Amino acid sequence: MRIVIVGAGLVGTQLARHLIQEKHDVSLIESNEERARHASNRLDCLVLHDEGNKLSALKEAGIAKADALVCVTGSDEVNMITCSLAASRYPELLKIARVRNDDYVRLNQTGEETHTHAAEGSVVQPSSLHSRPEGTRVPERVLDIDHFVHPDVESSQAVLSALAHGAVGNILAFTGTPYELGSIDIAAGSSFDGLRLTDYRSLVEGESLVTLVERRGESLLPKGSTTLVKDDRIHILAREAEMDHIFRLAGRTEKPLRRIGIVGGGRAGALIAGGLLDRDPEFGKRGKLFSLFKSFIPKNGRRVVIIEQNYGVCKDLAARFPEALILNEDISDESFIAEERIGDLDLIITATANQELNIIVAIYLKSRGVRRAIVLVTSSGYEAIARQLGVDVVIPMKTVVVDSILSRLLGGGIRGVHRLGDGSIGIIEIEIGPDSPAVEKPITAFRLSGGGLVMLVNRGIGSFIPLGDYMFKAGDKIALIAKNGNEAEIEKFFGPSK
What we know:
The protein is α/β, with parallel strands linked by helices. The protein has helices at residues 10-21, 33-42, 55-60, 76-89, 102-112, 151-163, 200-203, 240-249, 267-277, 288-296, 311-320, 334-339, 355-367, 380-388, 397-409, 487-494, and strands at residues 2-6, 25-30, 46-49, 68-71, 94-98, 147-149, 170-173, 179-185, 208-215, 218-220, 233-239, 259-263, 303-308, 325-328, 347-350, 372-377, 393-396, 414-420, 425-431, 452-459, 462-464, 477-483. The chain folds into 4 domains: 2-150, 3-Layer(aba) Sandwich (Rossmann fold); 155-164 and 255-400, 3-Layer(aba) Sandwich (Rossmann fold); 183-230 and 241-249, 2-Layer Sandwich (Alpha-Beta Plaits), CATH 3.30.70; 432-494, Regulator of K+ conductance, C-terminal domain (Alpha-Beta Plaits, 2-Layer Sandwich), CATH 3.30.70.1450.
């Protein structure tokens, strides 16, 4: 594919780096000279120092021959106008805009609520394994933009999904199936500490699969000879009902999280509060993720505290969430933490715009007695740091956005992408078309040079982990885990016949 990206910030450069690695033709436009120079020195692609909302710059970047335009500048308006400008000249171009304004979110919400969890929506809860019902109306595109990406909506969904299992690890739920991918660190002395994977079945009953092991910064596709050790971070595919038991085997025993604090009352914090309190109808229609949380803790058993330094924001939050305790305080004030007994909370969620503050506050409050902490950070680099420092769940917002964009971009039957660990391995969701070369071939015929595994299949109303006698069928929706750089092979095997 040929893709033009407008904006060379963290999201733009991370997206470009991944696409270049997968052998796509990428052009990057950046108005800031220093950012443009930085991107040019580090990326093997055309980088233009120019305004992305100028037609001349888009033409120089090759928009006339491009398959897609992705606008990820820091301005919602620039992103939307640039997409609309390109649409006026190139109507067949796929156009994606990152936006944060709540009004744009609501404007796009009605049409996307049955669609967004799919590859064409939230990456933290993929749903190419859950097809759009027949007869569902496809919404009109706003300003002729094909897809909006809402970072705060998607990151808040990731938080609530992790909360469904006690905030002991990240949860990736496959909507429309009973399966989830749980990520958890192995505790010393637990049942998994020292477990050889050939003995896994004797310990874990039911249908489950260890899909990835992270060890000392390296991501490993496990084999039967792999032995798990303490501090390994493992990613296990299992049924939702069995995930809590598996987490306990990893050494994580939990009590209900009834007293929950949210630091930061901005968009992300408000969305999380809305999911906890079931008070935000615009964002409450997001499917399985919210019903999961409501089944975890009864609504009348929760106490939600929101801590926000801005008085005006606190007034808005108090009107929006009357059942929550809104504290207009500075979280860095130690006397306030003692007076309000913040250390007695079961869980703290730090969701301010300052990722360093989020990490520091979470670690400090855990030292004061808070049992669990979820932190929002900007980039995946801080994710590893925060986890090493003892944060239970870390949500890297930029990575969530990049994965969401990739899910909308890729072809060949690919409907969703979610990268794991250090980003070198990802989950790819695929719907097998009737003209795919994979149809009627056995699973043993699927081999990737870089390594990969088909881990989940949705066929009709049933979902299962495929065994050696599985045959690919037209209409199957599958999830596979593979190393980066294999996209061309995956498209060749599963995509339409040439």
